[in-house]
Amino acid sequence: MCAINDKVxxxxxxxxxxxLAVMVMTLAMLVSGCSxxxxxxxxxxxxxxxxxxxxxxxxxxxxxxxxxxxxxVGQGDAILINTGEQxxxxxxxxxxxxxxxxxxxxxxxxxxxxxxEGITHIDKLIMTHAHADHIGKAAKVIKKYGxxxxxxxxxxxxxAAFRNALKAAKAQGTKQIKVKADDVLDFxxxxxxxxxxxxxxxxxxDTRDLQADKKVNVNNxxxxxxxxxxxxxxxxxxDAEKDVEKDILARYGKNINCxxxxxxxxxxxxxxxxxxxxxxxxxxxxxxxxxxxxxxxPHKETMQTFKKLNINxxxxxxxxxxxxxxxxxxxxxKGER
Length: 337
Ligand SMILES: [Zn+2]
Fold this sequence. Notes:
Strand order of the largest sheet: 6-5-4-3-2-1-14-15
Order of helices and strands: HHEEEHEHHEHEEEHEEHEHEHEHEE
Bound molecules: zinc ion
CATH superfamily: Ribonuclease Z/Hydroxyacylglutathione hydrolase-like
CATH architecture: 4-Layer Sandwich
Number of domains: 1
């Protein structure tokens, strides 16, 4: 009886071992699968997963890595994009500080940030709109970095920052490119930037109004567009306000869905309407603004919208430069502090 029982016992133990081995393998597969999935939405996690990178490279036109840095330049915007083939700068921040405690002092944060990144040449400089907190340093950037292409909306602003940028471009032999909704810019290595606004209508209307000395809403002239690399997408917004958001929603609907949202107008309540942010459905919202800025940016209404929609937020005034990294499959968003 004992011998028979032992044999039965052996079989049972072998079966348990086999079962356990299968369980362990299944768990291991689940864990590795989960870690990749969690990383794509994970807070500040690094996700340089080799297998994901290899998969991304298998997709035609998708290879390497896209790095987007929302630079800490105080009150203003400056976004550095490195596709491995091209260096693109969207806006340059202000030439002077706007914050009460440092008002009119020269703001050198952009050059310090570009030096830190080892930038010696810029392929494309995009000026979203003609406000100093976005293009205040444009002329200096063109002179210092030998920009290949200067991209703007073509609306003939009389602002000193805009005129000086065009003058510098002419002197340096920088090519000027005017863009409008539905234009697609090639950033190299499979990275594209599709312009959603301004429309031809806004460009023509504001050009006419400026020529007639009428006031225009410069924020609404902002170049808004989707940066796309594989499955990753990020909405870049300048300072576009709610009227433009409504128009973009009407023209593109749910096609504006993006993983990361560069919050327009430094988190002002003039932008980021609830229905717009809901349609974008970002996992992260990044706000570029200065410490204790006099505008009170970001406004609490905007932060409440993000909270209600369960969107993670990072702010350059609190977190420093915010880095978004993606292989076209998974991505990470990290603050400097
Ligand atoms: Zn601004």
